[in-house]
Structure formats: structure tokens, C-alpha cells
């Protein structure tokens, strides 16, 4: 079982949950909590100072007189101070804004929640009698079961009903915790399976990454070779372009001289136009004389034929002269033989 010191420690942790900073004292925290939980009651006792305002607010809520010595609340942690904090906890979880304070309790650690729930149940069961801690410890178990002040009153019955409701809610929460524990175990199993699959996927991704890196390296080398080849071809084209540009610059240097020559040739161009017109006239006349050309061509053909005939006749005449000479020689020879 949890000891009283453990419950007191849980109470202090609950109180520290609402501290504005690490240096804020317990009185300021308690006063602020009661002001938030019971603004109407706090408005009535705001004229009081120190712990008296806290005690008066709790008396207004529990509708009874709290026999508390203020001097015991200003020293170190003691039973009276712990009992007063228990009453504060029991009061704020029953105020109109109790849902906020209950949610704050449920956000704490399980051990702290258990201690605080035990304190709340004790407050709802015993009421303000928790302040008489030393007397309760000396009494026997039979006297501990005696009714505390206010038992049987409507306020006690309403708070006891609230206690039963909190107990039922606590039971439901425990069942939900069991269900959540099972779900957590199943989720843990699923998580392990997912982790194994994740490791396999990581190995697969590592292999794919290595393959992609190798392919990328190969492609990079190929692209680098293509890049170098392209650079070389572009360099050759650049050199060729530079050479052409140099030639064109040389030609551009000759342009002024050529322009001068063009200026000199312009008068000749005008003369050539006149010559072209004259040539056109002569050409027209030549076209008119095309018939004479045909006649001349026929005469030339006839003349050629006559020349051929003349040559043939001269050849025949030469042959005849030769035969005539031979005949004469034969006659002379015959005459000489006759003599």
C-alpha cells in the first residue's frame, strides 16, 4: 500500500502542476486555484489575508467550521498542511469547472493518479474530518467508522453520489486501460512486424540505390564522353567559323576598292545599255536576212558539188593527158621501128 508520505508527495506534485514558475510558493498556488474554482465564495472572503482567505473559502464550500491553526500552515510540511491540501483537491474536483481539474489529474502519471483518486475518495467519504489526523490515528477501527460531521446531510449525500460516479468512471477507465493495454500489445507486435518489413525494405532500397548509383555512374561516363566529343566538334566548328570570319574580314577590307571600281564601271554600264540596244537592232536586221542566209547556204552546197565535179574532171583530164603521152610515145616508138 502507498504510505502517507507518498500521498503527500503526489499532492505536492499535483500542486506544482499549477505553478506559474518554479519559485511560486504553495499559498499563492492554492489561493489562485480556489479563486478559479469558487469565484463567488472568494469574492466574499477577499478582505481576509493569507491562509485565512483559503480557510474561509474552504469553509464556505464544505459549509462547516474548520478548526485549523494558521501557524501550522506557515512552517514546514506537516499533517495539517497535507490535510488542508487534500481538502483543496476534494473541493476543486467538485466545483462547477471540475472537468478541467479532473482532466489535469488524468494527464499525470499513473502512480500520482492513483494517490490523488484515493485522496478524493477519502475526502468525499470523510469530509472535513481529515483535518483531525492525529485523533484519527489514535482511535480504533470502530471509531474510524463513525460518521463524520455532516453525514446524512443533503450536501454529504450529493458528494457521496459524486464519489460513486467517480468510482464508476474510474472502473470504466480501468477497463479502458486494460483494453488499451491489449491494443498496445497488438500494436507493439504489429510494430515489430513493420520493423522487420522496414529492415527488408531498407536492404532492398540499399540494393536498388547501389544499382542506381552504378547505372548513374555508367550514364555519367557515357554522357561525359559524349560531352567531350560534342565539345571537340564545337571547337572544330568554332575554328572553322573563325577562319571563315577572317576571310570575310579580308573581303570586307576589299569592299571599298570594289566600290570604287563599281563607280568607275557605271558609265561603261550606261554605254553597254546603248550597245545592247544597237545589237538588238542588228539582230532584228539579221533575222530579216535569215532567208538570204538560206540561199547562200544552198549556193555554197551547189558550189561544193561543182567543185567536186571540177576536181573529178581535172583528174580525168590528167589521166587523159597521161594516156595521150603514152600513146604518143608508143607512136614514136612504132615509127622508129618502121624506119
Automatic annotation (TrEMBL):
UniProt keyword terms in alphabetical order: Coiled coil, Cytoplasm
Gene3D superfamilies tied to this protein: Calponin-like domain
Record-linked SUPFAM superfamilies: Hook domain (SSF116907)
InterPro entries: CH_dom_sf, Hook_C, HOOK_N
Official protein name in the record: Uncharacterized protein
Domain Hook C-terminal: 165-331
Gene Ontology MF terms: dynein light intermediate chain binding; microtubule binding
Record domain HOOK N-terminal: where: 80-120
Pfam families for the chain: HOOK (PF05622), HOOK_N (PF19047)
Organism the protein comes from: Phytophthora cactorum
One BP annotation, GO: cytoskeleton-dependent intracellular transport
Record-level GO cellular component terms: cytoplasm; microtubule organizing center
Compartment(s) where it occurs, according to its Swiss-Prot or TrEMBL record: Cytoplasm
